[in-house]
Amino acid sequence: MSAWVLPDHIADVLPCEARHLEGLRRSLLDVAASFGYELIVPPLMEYLESLLTGSGQALDLQIVKSVDQLSGRTVGIRADSTPQVARIDAHLLNRTGVARLCYCGPVLHARPERPGASRELLQFGAEIYGHAGPEADLEIVQLALACTRQPGIAAPVLVLGDVRIVRSLLAGVMASMDTLAAVHTALAAKDASALQVATADFPQAQREGLAALLDLYGEPGPVMAQARQRLASFPAALKVLDGLQWLTQQLQAEDQALPLSYDLADVRGYGYYSGVRFSLYVPGCNDALVRGGRYDEAGAVFGRNRPAAGFSLDVKQLARVASQGPQAMAIRAPWVEGDAALRNAIARLRSQGEVVLQTLPGSEAADDAQRCDRELRLSNGQWQVHQAALQPAAAQEGLLETSR
Which is nearest to 165 in space by CA: 58, 54, 266, 311? Predict the structure, then answer.
């Protein structure tokens, strides 16, 4: 096998795409900082038990595992940063009030999540700990919406749900784990026949309530009215609907044009989320760009069962649908040995934020010069910036890198 071949679903990031990713990363972190979220950098590798605790149990098959050569213990490369953030909040920060944290770093999956997906993601996320009220849910959704307001991205569609609705319908039902798993699978697939089989031994009220969920998706107004009517015999579910309606009203008051819908049968992450859950969909993505919600049990295993809500997204997926701004052009400077004035001129320009590429001896026709629209010339004894003819090949850089 050739030495340059990479593992399946792993790819290099070339300069054009890397500039785009870095610009988005900075933009996302700036947005999070404007909401008061503090940046943390969890380690790429941890002992396996830390990555599998609490919310991390579902990630077992996605974690790439190895043996630590120093301790002999099993370690894993993170497949999701949320368990790490929960550990940091519970064990290291140990704050009594609200903690707002954000992060952005690579995660590795043992298998791609879907056909064609990468196994190496650049995961950005934000999480708020310490507030159990719906205000935290509202804030985290607002932050997620703000993060998707990138050039070239149409208004995202927000889909809301709440896992407590299904839990309220299943409360008191005596069923095996396999039966409950079949119910969740049928709800996720909106498979009425499979749901009917899975709930064959359930009380009539629960069967009808679960079957009703399959139809409860779409625009908030009609769905909410139907839900209150068809779930009227479940007071706990009605209380959850009250909270969902409050959240909807707050979001629509802020942006009346926000595309918003409900999906009350969406149980993805059922064992992970503890309340409101949401997804953001944008044109060009065949899956949700953002997923998030409330997960109050995330820090329990670390000794602090704090309320928590958050979301995450893959910056690489975001880059595929967000427009890339023009590349900053550079200044070409010659190589002149021992010329202190030239060195000072270059240093001054770089300190002002300019990109200065110094042409090395024998490389006057190198590709680096193709991104230069200005050049340093010696005029009247001083090094001055002048316009330079931009070579046509520079405009093809992004196309060439994309095609490789």
Answer: 266
Supply the pTM of this predicted model.
0.89
Q: Residue range 206-235: average pLDDT?
A: 96
Q: How many other C-beta atoms can be found within 10 angstroms of the C-beta atom of residue 58?
A: 14
Dihedral sign computed on CA atoms, order 72, 74, 79, 85? negative
Phi-psi region of 30 (alpha: psi -120 to 50; beta: other; left: phi over 0): alpha
Q: So what's the architecture of 157-281 in CATH?
A: 2-Layer Sandwich (3.30)
Say how far apart CA 213 and CA 170 lie, in whole Å: 13
DSSP state of 54: G
Place of tokens 């909807």: 248
Beta bridge partners of 38: 101
C-alpha pair distances (Å), 262 with each of 130, 223, 278, 301: 27, 7, 9, 32
Beta-bridged to residue 107, according to DSSP, are 121
The DSSP 8-state label assigned to residue 270 in this structure reads T
CB 243 within 8 A of CB 195: no
**Sign (positive/negative) of CA torsion 93, 96, 101, 106?**
positive
* 3-state secondary structure at position 138: helix
- Per DSSP, the residues of 341-382 read HHHHHHHHHHHTT--EEEPPTT-TT-GGGGGEEEEEEEETTE
* Distances from the Cα of 216 to the Cα of 65, 235, 265, angstroms: 41, 17, 7
Residues 137 and 129 sit within 8 Å (Cβ to Cβ): no
Instruction: Express each pLDDT in 316-359 by its tens digit.
Output: 999 999 998 888 899 999 999 999 999 999 999 999 999 999 99
- Going by pLDDT thresholds of 50, 70 and 90, the confidence category of residue 398 is very low
Q: Which helix (H) or strand (E) holds 137?
A: helix 134-147
Domain boundaries, the chain: 1-152+288-325, 157-281, 330-403
| Homologous superfamily, domain 1-152+288-325 | Bira Bifunctional Protein; Domain 2 (3.30.930.10)
Contacts of 300 (CB under 8 A, 6+ apart): 54
State pLDDT tens for residues 254-294.
Answer: 998 999 999 999 888 777 889 999 999 998 888 899 999 99
Distance of alpha carbon 267 from alpha carbon 181, whole angstroms: 11
